[in-house]
Specification:
The protein has a five-stranded parallel beta sheet, with helices on both faces. A three-stranded antiparallel beta sheet has the order 1-3-2. It has two domains: about 50 residues; about 130 residues, Response regulator (Rossmann fold, 3-Layer(aba) Sandwich), CATH 3.40.50.2300. The mean pLDDT is about 90. It is of the alpha/beta class. The radius of gyration is 17 Å and the shape is globular. It is built from nine helices and eight strands.
Length: about 190
């Protein structure tokens, strides 16, 4: 339990941010806010977490999230969940259309399925990195093992999510990507 001085446990930060505890550790590792050791437990300063949360791009500043999945139902469900967080989305059903959309109107982030007919997720990310090397990418897959997984890791996605995606997984990955988008926006200005 936290004390009166604004110190939070990992579980309390997860609740505050509406993410899993794994995402809290990911955020701390990515320097979103500091971890403080208290015996065998970790604690966070509430003010630091709240300040970080305020620093994330608003939906208007962010632009939109491009959802790329050959399964139209999954693309629609994923997009609706992102829209419920207040962000705009666009959906495409294949890698080629994704690259065309990115060239016409670059998104704030891309969520891409790993295995698709034609150009797979690795191909999409490889091409994306040539023109937009810092754009945040989240990989979605029903097959978290194998050669494609090893190949995609070369391109440093923000997060790899296993389908079916939970709200907490998606929300946490979005927060990581939003944090990364701050860097992306500053690099592309």
């Amino acid at each position: 339990m936290s004390d009166e001085k604004g110190i939070l446990t990992v579980d309390e930060v997860a609740e505050l941010l509406a993410v899993s505890t794994d995402i809290v550790y990911d955020l701390a590792q990515n320097n979103a806010f500091s971890l403080h050791s208290m015996g065998s437990d970790w604690r966070f300063q509430r003010s630091e977490v709240e300040e970080w949360l305020k620093s994330l791009p608003t939906p208007d500043e962010f632009g939109y999230a491009l959802v790329v999945d050959d399964d139209e139902n999954i693309a629609n469900v994923t997009a609706r969940r992102i829209e419920r967080m207040g962000y705009q989305t666009r959906r495409v059903l294949n890698g080629e259309d994704a690259l065309c959309e990115i060239e016409k109107n670059p998104p704030g982030m891309v969520l891409v399925d790993l295995i698709m007919p034609g150009m797979d997720g690795v191909g999409v990310i490889a091409e994306l990195r040539k023109t937009h090397p810092h754009m945040p990418v989240i990989v979605m897959t029903g097959y978290p093992e194998g050669k494609l997984m090893a190949d995609v890791l070369k391109y440093n996605p923000i997060k790899i999510l296993t389908k079916p995606l939970s709200r907490a997984q998606l929300g946490g990955a979005m927060k990581l990507a939003l944090m990364e988008s701050l860097t992306f926006k500053s690099v592309t200005k």
